[in-house]
Amino acid sequence: MFLGLDFGTTGARACVLDEAGTIAHEQRSAYRDAAGQTPQDWREALHALLRGLPQHIAARLQRIAVDATSATVLLCDTELHPVSPALLYHDARAHAQAEQLKQLAPAGHSVCSASSGLAKFLWLTQHADTGKASHFLHQADWLSALLTGMGGTSDYHNALKSGYDVERLCWPEWVTRLPHSHLLPQVLAPGKPIAEISPAVAEHFKLNPVCTVHAGTTDSIAAFIAADVHQPGAAVTSLGTTIVLKLLSEQRVEAAQYGVYSHRYGDLWLAGGASNAGGGVLRQYFSDAQLIELSSRIDAAADSPLDYYPLPRTGERFPHNDPKLVPRLSPRPLVPGSGQADDVAFLHGLLQGLSRIEAAGYARFAELGATPLASVTTCGGGANNPVWQQMRARLLGVPVTRARHAEAALGVSLLAKHAGIMQM
Fold first, then answer.
1. How far apart are CA 296 and CA 388, in angstroms?
2. Across the beta sheet with 261-265, what order do the strands follow?
3. Which of 24, 158, 167, 200 is the most exposed place for a label (fewest CB within 10 A)?
4. Stated pTM of the model
5. 3-class state of residue 186 by DSSP
6. Using one digit for the tens of pLDDT, what is the confidence trace for 36-51?
């Protein structure tokens, strides 16, 4: 049995696979306050998921892996007690530290952002009591450490935005020269074994005492693993509140000025970018029922004359990194001769605008030298809209399908089962 534990933005999920790859158990545990979540909330969710394992599964667990939100970090002591606040994935307080990193890091490096793991590392070491700190850990690292009883280990997906060199597989010299760099973790390939589960944890939750804990990944990459794509040129678009693109490429592409970065993915690269546009804009105007009804009245083969850029607010990250880019959501079309708002035409324009952003994102990857796009698998709420899928396929010019599975918990359980990405 192989347990994947996914710690996302609103709660945690467990997924257990058996030897045949069949889901044997699933469970969820929501945070009491997602906006104000703390390490104690994560620990309680972890314990709830472990307690919820059926005994016949718990006793047969062979491997466990954890995914969690990227660039969520904290400092802890040797006993794994937090000695700093946890800075969440969207925390952007480290503006001064990001400016400091611009003087140290290679030009355009992904750490030169207030929300990066390394900017948060500087903020924490400048504001917390480092005399009590033994480890700087990402959320997935800390939760894995609770299972083994040992801190100090990460994976190269979580460590990317903390400055780890995923090409040379080491912490670069400009990072190791930073004050308190000894707190940075040892970095393993995702899926590689860390240690056997702590005897105390095994006894308390009646788990197999020789079960091993393996290096994890981020929640977005776990969702990519669940989508089950493997060939260069295959991509996954997540149509959630925002649009997130990931493309398997034989070449690494990086361009901070466009919001583009690449994770190592075994022997390949996973090019990524995330727009601020997405389903969040649609929900500002329409309910789920309205989206279904209005979409059914759109001709997906026809172009809308409207030229929208549907942002929820000012600012874009990708494929144009422009914090001053304003939403373009007018003119609002009217039904001819009635003076009433034409919601079908308006939604058509919104969906086409979002589709064009997606197409521009994949074009940006190609412009930077990534493997050409060959297919797109879709996950997220927007994957349920067949009209939008037809529009996207027409603009992308490649097959577009809906993912059979896209749960991060399934992806990280697959990582545990195969003990690494390239064994899949």
1. 10
2. 261-265, 268-275, 243-249, 234-239, 375-379, 400-402
3. 200
4. 0.89
5. strand
6. 999 999 999 999 999 9
